[in-house]
């Protein structure tokens, strides 16, 4: 079930953190430059979720790049959505791909990619990457700026 709205119910209002990604409401706004090819980036360097086996916290640096079409994600709703993973038990791959797919479904962007740079679990860092397809020709696509694991900080 996809929860989203075009009515801004969270922006400018005191909003409690959602208890799960399934109950989080993502909101979108019209893109005033829908005719322009450009990249928007969101970075969440302190993303947390829970290991579905041990219940211990997992940490990641999440980078979301997208070329907007008709819609932009409303940033407060995105922050609340990402916060909803703090009590959510899922593997790194599931969290990363689920976030990417949910945003792609909401925004119908020209292109979207997500990089989940996870801190080590059991001594092994797990990095997860997903995108909707090839980047559009002519899109400026900077590096996500997160180095391979060497004690990230």
UniProtKB/TrEMBL annotation:
Pfam families: QueF (PF14489). Pathway: tRNA modification; tRNA-queuosine biosynthesis. InterPro entries: GTP-CH-I_C/QueF, NADPH_dep_7-cyano-7-deazaG_red, QueF, QueF_type1. It catalyses: 7-aminomethyl-7-carbaguanine + 2 NADP(+) = 7-cyano-7-carbaguanine + 2 NADPH + 3 H(+). Substrate binds at residues 73-75, 92-93. Residues 1-24 are annotated as: Disordered. Its EC number is 1.7.1.13. The active site is at residues 51, 58. Belongs to the GTP cyclohydrolase I family. QueF type 1 subfamily. This is NADPH-dependent 7-cyano-7-deazaguanine reductase. It comes from Brevundimonas aurantiaca.
């Amino acid at each position: 079930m996809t929860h989203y709205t075009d009515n801004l119910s969270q922006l400018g209002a005191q909003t409690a953190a959602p208890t799960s990604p399934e109950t989080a409401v993502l909101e979108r706004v019209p893109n005033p430059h829908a005719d322009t090819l450009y990249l928007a980036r969101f970075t969440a360097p302190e993303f947390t979720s829970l290991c579905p086996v041990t219940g211990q916290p997992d940490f990641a640096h999440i980078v979301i790049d997208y070329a907007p079409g008709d819609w932009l994600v409303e940033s407060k709703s995105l922050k609340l959505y990402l916060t909803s993973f703090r009590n959510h038990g899922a593997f790194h791959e599931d969290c990363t791909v689920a976030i990417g797919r949910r945003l792609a479904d909401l925004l119908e962007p020209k292109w979207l990619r997500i990089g989940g740079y996870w801190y080590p679990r059991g001594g092994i860092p797990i990095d997860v990457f997903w995108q909707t397809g090839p980047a559009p020709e002519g899109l400026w696509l900077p590096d996500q700026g997160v180095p391979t694991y060497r004690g990230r900080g």
